[in-house]
Amino acid sequence: SSELTQDPAVSVALGQTVRITCQGDSLRTYYANWYQQRPGQAPVLVIYAKNNRPSGIPDRFSGSSSGDTASLTITGAQAEDEADYYCNSRDSSGNHLVFGGGTKLTVL
Amino acid sequence: QVQLQESGPGLVKPSQTLSLTCTVSGGSITSGAYYWSWIRQHPGKGLEWIGFIYYSGAAFYNPSLRSRLTISLDTSKNQFSLKLSSVTAADTAVYYCARVSSTASQQVDCWGQGTLVTVSS
Q1: How many whole angstroms separate alpha carbon B29 and alpha carbon B54?
Q2: Which member of B48, B107, B113 has the closest CB to residue A45?
Q3: Are strands B115-119 and B11-12 parallel, antiparallel or unpaired?
Q4: Of chain B's two ends, which shows fewer C-beta atoms within 10 Å, N or C?
Q5: Which of B62, B33, B20, B108 is nearest to A47 (CA)?
Q6: Which of A99, A102, A104 is nearest to A32 (CA)?
Q7: How far apart are CA B106 and CA B36, in angstroms?
Q8: Could you tell me if A99 lies within 8 Å of chain B, comparing CB atoms?
Q9: CA B104 to CA A51: how far, in whole Å?
Q10: What is the pLDDT of residue A1?
């Protein structure tokens, strides 16, 4: 399968921990990457190769993976974390990229 | 700090060809460390990978768009381009050019600001 599945929406109380998941067969073979997209802006890479943070990304963002599911965890969510989050990976052929449908995170 | 900037018409008529160019500054598109990619986002929807090209000219396309799609490089101008033929209203989207790492994880580590292309008569 070349699909990555995400929950459409997740909410978290300010300061609490939230996990956003991404499921797909290709994740058994390839790493997941995660992107944050605020309204009207281009996406920003927040986690790559399962659990690596680009420079400038707060350490409250972390990634993990087990079997066909990858997860993005935000520990101590802040108001500015409210955004859409997308996972992506290579598809099962390894020659193409695929994105999950996105998860809208609301910080209450 | 590499920067990417899309350019091209914001309005395309149905059945015509959508053409966009991405100008890369602060880095060379002949670097073997990256693929150069196009990604689109339909209004209010998620991200869709269109395709990418390597400095060698090898291109990889989304199977659902392959028959209408060409991605090319212009190394003299440090640009890469997208051509999508026979467009319909379903091709209306924000189009992003982006840089993809050539490592195993192929993360998209740099994005252009995006450009809205509307297909309408």
Answers
A1: 8
A2: B107
A3: parallel
A4: N
A5: B108
A6: A99
A7: 11
A8: yes
A9: 14
A10: 46
Per residue in B82-91, pLDDT (tens digit) is: 999 999 999 9
- Average of per-residue pLDDT values in chain B: 97
| Residues in chain B closer than 8 A to A33 (CB atoms) | 105-108
- Beta-carbon separation of B111 and A42 below 8 A: yes
Closest CA to A96 of B18, B67, B114, B59: B59
Q: A49 to chain B: which residues are within 8 Å by CB?
A: 103-105, 107
Cβ contacts of B73-76, under 8 Å, gap ≥ 24: B73/B29, B73/B36, B75/B29, B75/B30
- Tell me: the pLDDT tens digits for B61-79? 999 999 999 999 999 999 9
A44, A85 Cβ separation under 8 angstroms: no
